[in-house]
């Protein structure tokens, strides 16, 4: 009876953690938030997100809250939420020793599941926080603050390379048939994207800000980095040709031969530069395998992604005199899938430790029952149920991120324009002579929102 009571108390205590994904999967929690982003009132549930920033998954909720406020056009509020996420990342970095809370979370994960471990975020999410914080500064009128943030995102992409190399060695060291099969499936889903941290969208944004703010040499460097990741984007190719010509770079002749000569503005023209974000990153799915150990049921649950990704059509922008077709610069969904693949070795180690721990707990309960003259072992049965119910895959990830980012760029005559993305309502933009109008388009389901600024 004491063991029955103990198990019941554990199960009861879990209800307090349910909102933090221990028993209720994270995608189902965030679904109402995404529904609101596809409605005219995207910030309706923002207070609910903000209320969870002090929770076990606080970093994740801060990222979601920052994105929701940003999509709503509240850049100052978004800036505050992202700053909380950045502070949380720094706190994880600065933690030199394992704390009591770390030990408690790790122990809880062995008895429950990985959702008991505080959310720390993969590298691509951290990079996106700084890129989006740069947009907050830019659209709030602080161009220098925006440059600081995009430089931070670039530094993070460099620092993630060592971690990536280490993870690749771990993947090879733990290779077996099951792991190989899962990695091959994830490889098929990512296409040509080979890591989670190399983000051409982030590099392009950095290069664009450098160029528009009068730093063409720095812009050229970042455009080249973006082109190494996404080499077939014609707008990025034109950026490289134009800057190579402007800066008298030795690569100009090669770029001209491969992509044609630079398209330069006519006298008095302005330009429009568009960053188009479409859809939502996919949700992690659960791969659950039941099995028995000494006749007792156990399950193993790992996060995975669907192997087949639907293609996203290029966006068409109308209202500029000619139809402008955007081209992909980054597939954020592929970055997410690669992040999961890179975390697979550590997840498998935790999974093996959890299976052993739960098996030993069940064995201990059974041994106690046998000492009571083989009475009906209700405690052991309840223990098996507990093991199965608490085995939940860690499906947490930043789910309000876009699935894909596209870019477009064109020189046009100055004036006022009414532009549309596909069948969206028209949005008014202004184009000034010898200036650039940056247009940020966010498509979330049935809603398309336009934010523009003249630089």
From TrEMBL:
SMART domains the record matches: TPR
InterPro entries tied to this protein: TPR-like_helical_dom_sf (IPR011990), TPR_rpt (IPR019734)
Pfam families noted in UniProt: TPR_8 (PF13181)
Signal peptide: 1-18
Keyword Signal (UniProt): yes
Ranges of the TPR repeats in the UniProt entry: 200-233
UniProt-listed PROSITE patterns: PROKAR_LIPOPROTEIN, TPR
Keywords from the named record: Signal, TPR repeat
Protein name: Tetratricopeptide repeat protein
Protein's organism: Shewanella japonica
